[in-house]
Amino acid sequence: MGIISNRVEHYSGSGHANQEQTATTPVNVTVSGETMTSFAVHSVCLPPQKSTLQKLRHRLSEVFFPDDPLHGFKNQSRLRKLILALQFFFPIFEWAPNYSFTLLRSDVVSGLTIASLAIPQGISYAKLANLPPIIGLYSSFVPPLIYSVLGSSKHLAVGPVSIASLVMGTMLNDAVSYNKEPVLYLKLAFTATFFAGVFQATLGLLRLGFVIDFLSKATLVGFMAGAAVIVSLQQLKGLLGITHFTNSMQLIPVLSSALQHKNEWSWQTYVMGFCFLAFLLTTRHIGMRKPKLFWVSAAAPLVSVVLSTILVTLFRSKLQGIAIIGHLEKGLNPPSSNMLYFHGYFLGVALKTGIITGILSLTEGIAVGRTFASLNDYQVDGNKEMIAIGLMNMAGSCSSCYVTTGSFSRSAVNANAGAKTVVSNIIMASTVLVTLLFLMPLFHYTPNLILAAIIITAVIGLIDYQSAIKLWKVDKLDFVACLSSFFGVLIISVPIGLAIAVGVSVFKILLHVTRPNTGVLGNIPGTQIYQNVSRYREAKRVPCFVILGVDAPIYFANSTYLQERILRWIREEEEWLAANNGSSVKCVVIDMTAVTGIDTSGLAMVKELKKMLEKRSLQLALANPGGSVMEKLHQSNILESFGLEGVYLTIDEAVADISSSWKA
Amino acid sequence: MGIISNRVEHYSGSGHANQEQTATTPVNVTVSGETMTSFAVHSVCLPPQKSTLQKLRHRLSEVFFPDDPLHGFKNQSRLRKLILALQFFFPIFEWAPNYSFTLLRSDVVSGLTIASLAIPQGISYAKLANLPPIIGLYSSFVPPLIYSVLGSSKHLAVGPVSIASLVMGTMLNDAVSYNKEPVLYLKLAFTATFFAGVFQATLGLLRLGFVIDFLSKATLVGFMAGAAVIVSLQQLKGLLGITHFTNSMQLIPVLSSALQHKNEWSWQTYVMGFCFLAFLLTTRHIGMRKPKLFWVSAAAPLVSVVLSTILVTLFRSKLQGIAIIGHLEKGLNPPSSNMLYFHGYFLGVALKTGIITGILSLTEGIAVGRTFASLNDYQVDGNKEMIAIGLMNMAGSCSSCYVTTGSFSRSAVNANAGAKTVVSNIIMASTVLVTLLFLMPLFHYTPNLILAAIIITAVIGLIDYQSAIKLWKVDKLDFVACLSSFFGVLIISVPIGLAIAVGVSVFKILLHVTRPNTGVLGNIPGTQIYQNVSRYREAKRVPCFVILGVDAPIYFANSTYLQERILRWIREEEEWLAANNGSSVKCVVIDMTAVTGIDTSGLAMVKELKKMLEKRSLQLALANPGGSVMEKLHQSNILESFGLEGVYLTIDEAVADISSSWKA
């Protein structure tokens, strides 16, 4: 066995293990002119001494400021700091000074393109939330303006989105019916929007952005697909022309409601509806296949609205059965701060709806922002974005808007259409403004079926079956999380579906910690490398040693398991040795490289294990314990019981030193 | 820099990275007679191919059968297997054939000793659960007998315990008052016991024993101390002779109730009470200081009961103010299966009480069993113990017993008194039997104050302030978990206190995963060792490289954080290099040794990171990715994007190979 190590003691920090040095067969090795002596043992260091307060500060800064947001402010003059601070809080000051006519031209084109999508989608999504269609347009006017001042993403197209609309509609409708109490419903919607905004801004301010990370991608894939299926089925109401449709949001009631009211189906409606749906889906397909033709799918919804409205207006008398939007008020967003509802029976509903729609819309907004930032090679600060989205919703709730965020589909169109800055949002808002002021009467005869078709076309993209297949291939437990959020949303309800999915994701982490991998390591001959013998056929067990790798922090949740498992490994190795060459185990080395933390239960386990092995005359050594583990072993006085021959920097040194001590 | 590695390609599994071999400056190294050539690269292996079903089987066997319980059955004859199975299910068959008179003598001594503790404690604990005192004696008779057949611990002294009694008393009393509806209360107590037993046996049968691991030691220290404080304060009722005392279990109501009813304080009661309390505490102290005198503290409760009963009987007329136990029925446990309550309004209460007392008593029983097993060098199987405790409680609920388990204090006395097998439990049960049949009238004049003093003496040992101090020293977050369970129990309620503590413990695990340690690694000159530069002063940064260690699995909960943090490390290293020697970073190596798992979000992060670094003309390499990580990188096709120079077995090889490729 070619063990090469060097006789150099490394003192640093207050490392204290292995001060004894027993050198056996020192070997001179000449590498690039340096001469070293072999077979020595490196001491394992404790991390630099820090007070509890320093540790707490370091920990807090890692938890809340991992990106060191103020690093740009270091070593700057006062004036520069002021300007940086202004730019930090209002990104508009960062890009506005360099804004040019070329940029404006791109932004106008993209702004008009997304406006043509935003107007029909706004009307449709408002219906999804059981709100009057005009609220959808209001929500496409104020929030984008606010975002353009505060937001740091260049491509985010702000406005109502399908998921948040659906969830708000479902949750509020469970408490209050819009048809029966429209004013109360509106009040609750604005209040929920306000709470959503407060929640989002608070998360950002407290730098708790990592909360949304708990909605893993797997969870979201399942959740979105489930929501998309429900939303699409709900649209059967509009597409088939049913008047008495269930308000429920579960699969079975929706399906049975559609079938039960067969007598209400109107053939004019569903013929026209499915024709437009086919048209929209075809244009969507073209837009996806050929990214250059993105404008086909971008323009299709507006074209459909115009076409269908003309059709219905012309053949008004023959198409009586087709439901239309009806009268829409002209004019700007009326103020709605007087409609916020801060006490009374339904406050809890508004709060809950606000938090859930808040977190969902935040997740979508941040994910969209990050995606397009990384595609276009700039960075968005998650926490700053949260503040921007939160403030935009708070302002929205006072100006007759409901929950808005960055929409994935419209942002994609925005980016494809060549948007360069958030000015495209201002252009879009201006277009919506013109619509609100002058064009509202044109929507009077727009049939509801076209809104249903637009919604289906928009949400169908949320069913990402390819991702689901990939999840199954790569990570079965992620796939289970995905499935459970899908069926949870579909069969039980949106909040419970989400809760189940988050539960499964957290359970996965806990399972990883509760039942970590362990394995026997062996040496790859001629190297200092030790690897799992079941993975590397070359890795050979070292005689008289059992070298075990533990792949997790040792915590209360796994200390009992690890103790049992380690004892079983030792037993199995002993049995194997006895059966194969009759030798016996004399020392157990635990590779602590991947043991990234230890708590008091874990420390007790290590102590216990050492005692148990000692009773069986087995030596226990630890290889490469990490900084925090070393510190805790030291603080709990366990290190002392290990003495001089118990803690090594590498497995190789442990094996070399311990076997040489046997020879001596 | 002395980099020593060996030109040996290791093919195994289907490893495929780094098939290219560019050797620069090969060096001959002679170690113990072998000659090797330096500068070669080992391929990183994929783990052995397994089907989904095989993986699932392996995973399930690790989750549910980590101790391989059937390993003793391998390669045995049929008859032997049958005997082993009998011994497996009924440990009595294991020890009974070798039982001898010497063992019996020890067991009789220890059995009588624990009986002298069990009788007064049984009566006292039953009062703690608001149950008639005799139930405590019943519970010290049937369950120990059942445990002696099924249990595998040699030192467990079975019977009622303080924590489970307190919790049962609190939770049932919230729903039903014993004084108003004694029969319903009794029914609920037996039903809760039944459910506790079913829950415990089910956990054991389904091998879900790890559930109790989630009550970490830190949690339990706080919980027990909180419960002990509450229980002690509750005993002011008995010690001061108050008749109208609160049923509440929170700190403030209990204290204020004791002070409000000052007019009810009886001086005879509290003088006598505090005298006996002082006596009991003194003997307890002696027993703790000198383990040989354990019999002093073991005998003290019975001595106090006898003494106080004689005193009260003699001076009956003068000690009118002292409350006494009163009439106790002679006779054996009456059957109570007809009192189990499986439908109706209070079923939920019984179920909840059963599960919570079940898990608490299980935790105590298993912990006690493990402690004494490890002290006396034998093993107890947690899951088998759970079945034994569960069946014993199920049987108990049908014979007028309430929740029982292994008591810590009595088991310690049992062990000290020299118990050798569970026969000491049989001896104890026989003594209780004699008491039940003949001695019950003797307890008529036993004053309640002595029961209060016994309870206080017993629970005061649960306040383990030394452990709390140690928690503070070693692990601040564990201390927070401890404190929150302490105050949760004291101020809110027992179940909520427990829930908070478990929540804090789980949060700790999540925090560890959400914000893992990362750090820059450097080479210890003359070795192949790479360590954190902030911990090892000798560790030197390698020019042109940023080597980062990541100390956690890369999951959805930390992938965003890790991406930001890694980019920040790179930025900081670039700034540092620019300021110090003007060189630039050309390659980033991530040490994946401690990355024990990766999920789809983590994979997306790695892919994203690679893309981002490529845009900045930085190379990314991974060192020592573990088996499951490697497999997932492979399945998700990310490995391909790394190509030949991206995945290495060690950091050292990565650095050597990449720098040599630059030279070439």
From TrEMBL, chains A, B:
It is a multi-pass membrane protein. GO terms for molecular function: secondary active sulfate transmembrane transporter activity. The chain crosses the membrane at residues 79-96, 131-150, 156-176, 188-208, 265-281, 293-315, 340-362, 422-443, 449-467, 479-507. It is found in: Membrane. It holds the Pfam family STAS. Keywords: Membrane, Transmembrane, Transmembrane helix, Transport. Residues 535-658 form the STAS domain. It comes from the Eukaryota. GO terms for cellular component: membrane. NCBIfam families: sulP (TIGR00815). This is STAS domain-containing protein. It comes from Mikania micrantha (bitter vine).
